[in-house]
């Protein structure tokens, strides 16, 4: 049986929110089978659980925000991406503020936290959402078009193409394909950092955003070049971060996908629209398990290697 996974023990991190600038403590705890991933706002007078699912997403401006009533958690996508990459099905995320800490701007710190706590298999089968028919969303037209789609695939493959029309970005790889069957998430995707432009920082901060951002947790560019003295971690770090974000956004579905995801200039809003479009079409997907590991696609049957 291909089993669900959780953590062996709890692990903790402290950091600041990228947009809020607030100090936040994060505790990742094991959860029982079929719990899913649940964020818990423990700073509130009455702690509130926010289970992860596509309908829980209430804001997609610059990040993915999930809510339950008045309680919300911002910028969940990097942690969710790490959970997707390591195959974590069940997890409690205790948090002391309304935004997940940005840490180094990638998912690698979350991968390290999860692996240091230990990943263990559980007693129930892992449930996948298998895409049966193509599903697509798009907006704009001509030079301004953006789109994202899911198509049937026995495994999980992601293809992303960017088009920022900026000298520093244009000089790097513009398209990446990552397949869970032959790639290693921690090595190939997780270290790609979020990025932004100095021209946008003043406007963002005037609107109470990017208050915790800086060169230690993001790639920052002026009109011509990357300002980080250590340069890029990958030759195609920008588009790899878009893959990282997409993996996190899509894992908000609550179950791993068996599908091929492809996108051009997509972002958090379009990724959530894609999930909602899929869920609105019951004939386009099914939930499956694998009683024998050999029946499962490559890349899912074994625990991901450590660093």
SS field, number of helical segments: 7
Major sheet description:
7 strands, mixed
CATH architecture of the largest domain, by name, is: 2-Layer Sandwich
Helix content: 10-25%
Question: Can you tag this structure with a few keywords?
Answer:
307 residues; alpha+beta; Ribosomal Protein S5, domain 2; lpxc deacetylase, domain 1; 2 domains; 7-stranded mixed β-sheet; 5-stranded mixed β-sheet; 19 strands; globular
Characterize the structure shown:
Helix 1 (77-86) packs across helix 2 (108-117). This protein is an alpha+beta fold. The chain has seven helices and 19 strands. The strands form five sheets. Strands 11, 12, 13, 14, 15, 18 and 19 form a seven-stranded mixed β-sheet that branches. The protein has two domains: 3-125, 2-Layer Sandwich (Ribosomal Protein S5, domain 2); 128-295, lpxc deacetylase, domain 1. It starts with a strand and ends in a 19-residue tail after the last strand. The model has no long low-confidence stretch (mean pLDDT 94). Strand 12 and strand 13 (146-151) form a beta hairpin. Helix content is 21%, strand content 31%.
